[in-house]
Write a structure and sequence with these properties.
Helix 2 crosses helix 5. Strand 9 and strand 10 form a beta hairpin. The chain has nine helices and 15 strands. Strands 2-3-11-8-13-6-5-4 form an eight-stranded mixed β-sheet. Strands 1-10-9-12-7 form a five-stranded mixed β-sheet, with no helix packed on it. A two-stranded antiparallel ribbon has the order 14-15. It has a single domain, classed as Jelly Rolls. The chain is of the alpha+beta class. Keywords: Dioxygenase, Iron, Jasmonic acid signaling pathway, Metal-binding, Oxidoreductase, Plant defense, Vitamin C. One of its GO terms (molecular function) is dioxygenase activity.
Length: 359
């Protein structure tokens, strides 16, 4: 074990899901078959329900448009924990280029990608599993994880040098999306009745963290038996997902049902993470979500995680702790919290529930 308690290596040899998919077999290994209760068919609403869609242009409109947009975001945070945003200021061309550049990476020969193979020590690089439990049931996906902020962790040498534009595109994309996250943090702060900088300050102000996980979900011969990503709530602060608008896959839990998100072209899907649930003293809730896979089509998505500085204790903002609403959570640094998750893998909402203050 290293000093931050992360193991140096995986408990068993890594199998790339993409290579299983390319063998064109009509079954999947037992390691990927989920228990009956976790399989995709359970309680999915296949109707026209979708997460709220919010036009951010209203934020810079007249006072009425701004108030209406703030209200829509507030309602989405309270009711869903998820929403889609359009007119957000990030160039559509950059969004397409980022997703397609990563698609090209995953289509490269395996030996080239293997140069970037990751370990559980930092997760940075090319990976195929989360959690280090030996014999765990695995998800049907590969991924690439990279750090973007703080700058001390950003190491472009750990980002792929192929395709040729990858590092440059990643850098520009990260810069634009981090800026957008900063804008949204102010909105969430205002909607909680706080000064606009309070949540960002709770994250460490100028020293916030950000990382990106590019998800690759290969075709799967038996999509009804497995998941691309098991049910979980995001451990960080806020997630901006650039989805694959051609292939739906993300499902969000709403009460006892799973809603399949219908992504709009050039929209971002925004969701609240566990750290904002803690800072907001439970006013905003992170919501469980999962990913289903497809027998005919691969799917590529980019999840950008905007997180607190890793070593400051995260606890409810003092203005939101009242006599009738005491602090719901005990303080924990994001480093400690993330380690908790990295050792166990995705696990519903059990992680944030474990922080609840004893009553």
């Amino acid at each position: 074990m290293t000093k931050n308690n992360s193991p140096q290596d995986w408990p068993e040899p890594i199998v790339r899901v993409q290579s299983l998919s390319e063998r064109s077999i009509d079954s999947i290994p037992d390691r990927y078959i989920k228990p009956l209760s976790d399989r995709p068919s359970s309680a999915v609403l296949d109707d026209d329900t979708n997460i709220p869609i919010i036009d951010l242009a209203g934020l810079s409109g007249d006072p009425e448009a701004r108030a209406s947009t703030l209200s829509q975001i507030s309602e989405a945070c309270n009711e869903w924990g998820f929403f889609q945003i359009v007119n957000h200021g990030v160039s559509p061309q950059l969004m397409d280029m980022a997703r397609e550049t990563w698609r090209q990476f995953f289509h490269m020969p395996l030996e080239e990608k293997q140069q970037y193979a990751n370990s559980p020590k930092t997760y940075e690089g090319y990976g195929s599993r989360l959690g280090i439990e030996k014999g765990a049931i695995l998800d049907w996906s590969d991924y690439y994880f990279l750090h973007y902020l703080p700058l001390s962790l950003k190491d472009c040498n750990k980002w792929p040098s192929q395709p040729p534009s990858c590092r440059e595109v990643c850098d520009e994309y990260g810069r634009e999306v981090a800026k957008l996250c900063g804008r949204l943090m102010k909105v969430l702060s205002i909607n909680l009745g706080l000064e606009e900088e309070v949540l960002e300050r709770g994250f460490g102000g100028e020293d916030v963290g950000a990382c990106m996980r590019v998800n690759y979900y290969p075709k799967c011969p038996r999509p009804e038996l497995t998941l691309g990503l098991s049910s979980h709530s995001d451990p960080g602060g806020m997630t901006l997902l650039l989805s694959d608008d051609q292939v739906p896959g993300l499902q969000v839990r709403k009460a006892h049902n799973w809603i399949t998100v219908k992504p709009l072209p050039h929209a971002f899907i925004v969701n609240i993470g566990d750290q904002i649930q803690v800072l907001s003293n439970g006013n905003y809730k992170s919501v469980e979500h999962r990913v289903v896979v497809n027998s005919n089509k691969e799917r590529v998505s980019l999840a950008f995680f905007y997180n607190p500085k890793s070593n400051i204790p995260i606890e409810p903002v003092k203005e939101l702790v009242k006599a009738d609403k005491p602090a719901l959570y005990t303080a924990m640094t994001f480093d400690e919290y993330r380690l908790f998750i990295r050792l166990r893998g995705p696990c519903g909402k059990s992680h944030v529930e474990s922080l609840k203050s004893p009553r």
